[in-house]
Amino acid sequence: MPKAILYSLIFLMLVVSCECKDMKMRELPEEKEITFTGEVASPEAKKPYIPGDKREIKLHLGSNDEEAKDAKFKIVSWEVTNGKKGTLDVSSLQLGDNTLSYTPQEPGKHELTIKVAIEGEEENAQILHYTLEAEEANWQITGQAEGGGNITLTITDAPQEWHEKPWHITSLRWSCGLSGRIENIPTSLAYGTNNLQLTLGQVALAESPWVRLTIQGPDSTDREITTDLREECIEKLKEALSEEELQAIREHNEAVRQQEHTYQGNYAGTARADAQRELGALYDTTTRLQAETTTQLEHFVNNLGVLRNQNASGLTALDAKRTDLQRELAALASSIHILHPMVTRLRESNTGPIDPFGVLHEALQQRNYEETSMALHLESPWLEVNKEDDQGKTLLHLAIEQGNVPLSRTLIQKGAEVNVRDFSGKTPIQYAIDKNDQAAITLLRTSGADPDLPPDWQLQGSYDESSRQLVLSINNASERPQRERRQQEQWRITNVTWSHGIRGQIDPNLVLHHGQNRIPLTVEVATLTEQPSLQILVQGPDNAYQATALDLRGACVTQLTKKFFSENIEAEQWINNSQAVLGEDIEDTETARSDMCTTLATLLHQVTTFQKEYRKDLKKAEKSLNILNDTKLDIQLSNSIGSCEKLENTIKTLDQKIYVLKKGSIDSEALLFGALQNMDSETINTCLNSNIDVRAVDSQGKTLLHQAVLVNNVEAAKKLIEKGADVNAVAMQEQTALCFAARSNNIEMVKLLCASHGDLGIKSFRGTSLLQFAATGRSPEVLAFLIEKFREKRLDLGSSDLKGNTALHYLAKNTRKECSRMKDGPSWLKTLEIQKKMLKILLDCNEIDPTKRDHKGKVAFSSATPSLQEYWTDLVRHINSTI
Predict the structure, then answer these.
(1) Which of 12, 34, 242, 470 could form a disulfide with 519 if both were Cys (CB 3.0 to 4.6 A apart)?
(2) Which domains, and CATH codes, for the chain?
(3) 372 alpha carbon, distance to own chain's centre
(4) CB of 521 within 8 A of CB of 461?
(5) H helices within 583-713, ranges in order?
(6) Greatest Cα-to-Cα distance within the chain, rounded to the nearest angstrom
(7) Cα-based angle 54, 60, 64 (whole degrees, multiple of 5)
(8) Tell me: the pLDDT tens digits for 721-734?
(9) CA 447 – CA 444 distance, rounded (Å)
(10) CA R_g for the chain
(11) Alpha-helical segments (H) within 310-372
(12) 184-198, 388-402, 667-681, 813-827: range with lowest mean pLDDT
């Protein structure tokens, strides 16, 4: 063979060898899945629960793959599976040891489930379990009064970790009739013994005396401690009416005895005036001392009786004090008995007798029933038996108030009115009822007194739409002349009740006066379920109550009409602004298109936000219109509905404009997402025929296959699956494309995904199965098809979600939602027929138990609408009869 040919063959073999090596060098490495393991350290020992206390969780991540060193780990999700509350501080993770921080928000066992994954490989997440105990502390507090106002509080049985933490006094309560304060109350209490200094104020006991403190511990729980204060009350009562004050009363009584024989003669002119002034001053001082001593003795005797009933010790000194008070009070009564006739004689006119009403009135006020001249004054021809004093009280009022039944009978015989009111609006029988004086009540009833006499004032209310004011008028009910005092009397609003669906602001403690009262009132309308009204309860100066109800239909119509008129104007402004922006000329440059996209996206967000709130208001108003039945409001709402539809069209136009502008500048995957949403068939086919990443996801975690299923595009779904789309990829809430299809009522789409090896056993993060998703749709065909597939794969047809709901629960609850959305009508009747078919399919499944209860203890039947319940009952009855 010639050398040239030989060299040519060798050269050719070298070239081929180099090309082969070069091809091997250019081969792409196979993509390798990174594996790792996660492990949490054993839970720490039980610790007491303290609000805000953070617990560390040690987490170790390990891997034998070299690529794991550069991988980024993250916590995909976490939850407390047993219903406890807490917060987990989620931070970035790395290979090796990590520390997580968990803060329990309530005591008890917290069972955590944590999902950890490498960023971008969330489907291969590791599920870790961790349990910790936040033990509820059972700390105790005791208290004891040590005398001298000193109270000792002792805190015990707290965990060691709490010994340096503060306890706080959160409230202080006294027994009925007792008051006081804690001197220099500390900002906080310490563990162990604490001393508090107590100072008593009023002592008017109605029960055994005590003080109750509420103490809050470091765990934010409260303990109450009640301390007996009987000994402190005894010491306080010993200080009442000192020996010096008793001696002053004795000296005053002695001075009265010395004056008894001084003023015996007949006085005239200046001497009469001087004597009247001196004796009057002495008489006034005596009556004042008698009133003060009587009040002190009543309080003293009442307190002594309560303490004796509570078996308090050390009451001998108090009994002696009571005896002294009773003796001095009797001496004061005797002094008044001496002074009264002397003062009466000096007050008589030189030309005629004194005013008998004045004498009787003073005698009743001083309880001087032994006055010998009382009988003579009762027989006086000058006596005005129904005359009123400065408080509007007649002699009968005073006699009943004093409990003097014989005098009351005499006054009635003299012509005293039994139903007359004083300035506080009370009649004599009302005073008798307040005192529970049965003898006086019987006397007055037999004399014609009416205990249920209506108040002598009337309440009327109205709403002034022009000024938006509530008008409350208080007028006299009788023809009795109006007193000047009535202008100073006060009425109070004690209760305000709004009908369901409206609200407003009225001060419940507002003070009203006689005549017309105007109160500003702005009504806010939510959703009316009854005629809008406002009921106001008013308490008068006589403690009587009257109510008035106001019709607020006009106020509601005005408020809604004005609201939707302004919202309609705003809607038109948004529509005009959008049209103006959409009509702007755009330069054919990438920068101009990008700027316009940004402007339109901002505008789209603003219009969408307004439209959502606008639609909510319309739904509420449509329900209210059935109650108000106002033509003017009906027209306004019709205009609003039209504006809302224009807004929806504007939103679609903006969305499409953004999509068109972005078509030339976004990648194929984003373009396909937009084309699917806008049903752009030409662009969909173009993208599917190009080299696209079928694993791409949008901001909500949905894949292109998810989006194709949402818009019911079966052809696009087929091509995506042919190009390698993951049928079992999960979007947010861990739902696959088959979960979306089960609710879409598209049997062809469901069959396609099942034939493409879609996971029939998939469940969402709430535990919802495919069968439960199908129960919320409107396709009996999809439901029946999935049941057959479940049986082929031997999957549990009667499974429940995390709240215990079966497919029957989902069907029943969805029917109620559809009913409330559609109300009555052809659409609802058609939907009901579909729901009945689906119910029959589910009840025919022996694997589904209709008596199974959810976690609230409810069966599916109780959640259905009445129409479906009626069909359900008939269906079950028919099934049982065939069996």
Answers:
(1) 470
(2) 37-135 (2.60.40.2410), 140-237 (2.60.40), 244-446 (1.25.40.20), 469-551 (no CATH), 556-660 (1.20.58), 666-731 (1.25.40.20), 760-883 (1.25.40.20)
(3) 67
(4) no
(5) 590-628, 631-662, 668-678, 681-688, 704-710
(6) 182
(7) 165
(8) 888 889 998 887 78
(9) 5
(10) 46
(11) 316-347, 356-365
(12) 813-827
pTM attached to this predicted model: 0.39
Q: How many CB atoms lie within 10 A of CB 17?
A: 10
SS3 assignment, position 131: strand
Q: Which two tokens stand for residue 320?
A: 């002696």
- The separation between CA 500 and the C-alpha centre of its own chain, rounded to angstroms, equals 16
Say how far apart CA 764 and CA 773 lie, in whole Å: 10
Distance of CA 101 to the CA centre of its chain: 32
Q: Which of 836, 834, 826, 818 is nearest to 875 (CA)?
A: 836
Please name every residue paired with 114 in a beta bridge, in sequence order, or none if there are none. 78, 128
pLDDT of residue 812: 84
Phi, psi of 198 (to 5 degrees): -110, 135
For 430, list phi and psi in degrees, rounded to 5.
-70, -35
3-state secondary structure of 543: coil
Instruction: Encode pLDDT of 198-220 as tens digits.
Output: 888 778 777 888 888 888 888 77
Contact residues for 883 (Cβ-Cβ < 8 A; gap 6+): none
Q: How far is CA 502 from each of CA 476, 507, 624, 640, 753, rounded to the nearest angstrom? A: 32, 16, 10, 21, 51
Pick from 157, 77, 161, 67: which is nearest to 117 by CA?
77
Helices of type H across 165-263? 230-238, 243-259
Whole-angstrom distance, CA of residue 802 vs CA of residue 862: 19
DSSP assignment of 674-708 = HHHHHT-HHHHHHHHTS---TT-B-TTS-BHHHHH
Phi and psi angles of residue 387, each rounded to the nearest 5 degrees, phi first: -70, 145
User: By percentage, how much of the chain surpasses pLDDT 70?
Assistant: 82
- Asked if residue 456 lies in contact with residue 476, where contact means CB atoms within 8 angstroms, the answer is yes
Judge contact between 661 and 589, C-beta under 8 A. Answer: no
HSE-CB for 126 with a 13 A CA cutoff: 20
Please choose, from the candidates 599, 594, 569, 566, the residue with its C-alpha nearest in 3D space to the C-alpha of residue 582.
Answer: 599
